[in-house]
Amino acid sequence: MPKFGIVIHGGAGTILKEKMSDDQEAQIRATLRLSLQTGFTVLKSGGSSLDAVQRAVNVMEDSPLFNAGKGAVFTHDGDNEQDATIMNGPTGQAGAVGGVRRIKNPIDLARTVMEKSPHVLLISAGAEQFAEQHGFEMMDPTYFHTELRRKQLAAALDKERASGGNDPGSITLSEDGKHGTVGAVALDQEGRLAAATSSGGMTNKKFGRVGDSAQPGAGTWADKVCAVSTTGHGEYFMRGVVAYDLAVNMQYRGMPLAEAAETTVREKLDATGGTGGLIAIDREGNFVLPFNTKGMYRGHLMPGEDPHVAIWEE
Amino acid sequence: MPKFGIVIHGGAGTILKEKMSDDQEAQIRATLRLSLQTGFTVLKSGGSSLDAVQRAVNVMEDSPLFNAGKGAVFTHDGDNEQDATIMNGPTGQAGAVGGVRRIKNPIDLARTVMEKSPHVLLISAGAEQFAEQHGFEMMDPTYFHTELRRKQLAAALDKERASGGNDPGSITLSEDGKHGTVGAVALDQEGRLAAATSSGGMTNKKFGRVGDSAQPGAGTWADKVCAVSTTGHGEYFMRGVVAYDLAVNMQYRGMPLAEAAETTVREKLDATGGTGGLIAIDREGNFVLPFNTKGMYRGHLMPGEDPHVAIWEE
Predict the structure, then answer these.
(1) What is the C-alpha separation between B299 and B60, in angstroms, rounded?
(2) What ipTM was estimated for this complex?
């Protein structure tokens, strides 16, 4: 049987079983399964890992349940500013966008940056101008306004006021919205690896904060050996260059995937107080999904298996 | 004699001796010397490497001769959009800004992001709002308008028109403006390493392009072992995670600084067609300044030495 497959995450954080209804949980699991099956169908029919990770991420972007695309969290000013990165292992090409507000599927725009521009990262209004000229539909900002995220912003603002956060230059982070991000990594039948990550960032974020999801090497990585997508408190992943660190643990320290991932989580997250998780797959089809938070929405689908999804430790 | 010192660069690229007047060359060398002496004075009096790299970069930002601060190149729309990153080795903290238009010294704002916010990267209008609330003077955009950069934009636009670049979504890069960036790395008397990079990006850039100078790991790195600042065609440095790659060549592959730098330039730039250079210093005070372009503005100053500056191969 050829080695191929897909691994996804839908965010890590303080996800508590007692705070989630059975119905919510069922919806989340169903969307993760749909994401896996959508990506896997591409791989099974001989498509590229690049198409597979993009389509898998699209499913989570289009769901209000995850902090990316439709379900992106609100900024302090009541906007939704999104980051995304895609990377193609065989070529080492990467595309990313930061702080975009009117793009339904930021991962599609990241791919267009990679394929139709000489650049890696485009941001804000400039990125949207590029999108418009490449035929992207500009969404009305209300498309991204969901009740759940509105409540999370209100709660974050209440907490900020309660803690005396009146200094206009101050920044109060919300625990709730800190860890949402979606991502996928895949190996296709031709042995090509790819990774994709898309994120609404942090609830109540201010001042044009951009996170690791817009930075190849930090939140996303793919080369000829492995593909990685991360989720968590982005600043720790940026300072630790986490996704690339896992890759060089394999290539420079000679570690197999599982040891490389464990080492990166220990040295770059546990050691610094960083919280979150990651998914990674290597060219042999080995994969890992470690996290150091209460939970991480995640799943994998390999040939001859049923889609496997999980939220908490198993 | 205690080991300490500073190394700087003022950009790498197709710098041709025959295209530079004696007067221009003398001005550039004098500014590089002033930058070195300014940073070195901090170190000699027992100050931190963090202060030293910031002050050294300030000197180049305030000069119209380098593509950062005052001398930043023009975007396609006639603006100046700047990126900068600073990183503190002992703590692993980093601060960065991308696409800022009204900040005289972007490296100062990067430091304020590092020290006064929980974030790593702030962009565009949001970053300027943060700057304003932290007491930064908002410059009139005309402060950054210099005759040299205006001519470079006009030449780039002419070239774009001549090559039929009428497709509004297309991007034509200018060779001239591709490689300007300034940076500094330093080791202080307490053995602390720091790195800083500031850049106006590329002449004629469009669509909110942000380069490696806004990304810790790509254009800037500092830890307890080495400090790195890069200059060149930023997209190659982003895809190669060049600054961090040098650091892990030392830490994970056990290479001494010179071999680590040589390996990174060979594997991450020469192998991919990337052009540029970098400066790096380690905790023993060893330093390197490799580049694969015609020239790189650069210099170093160590205890008991005169400032040493250079432009071409020696």
Answers:
(1) 12
(2) 0.95
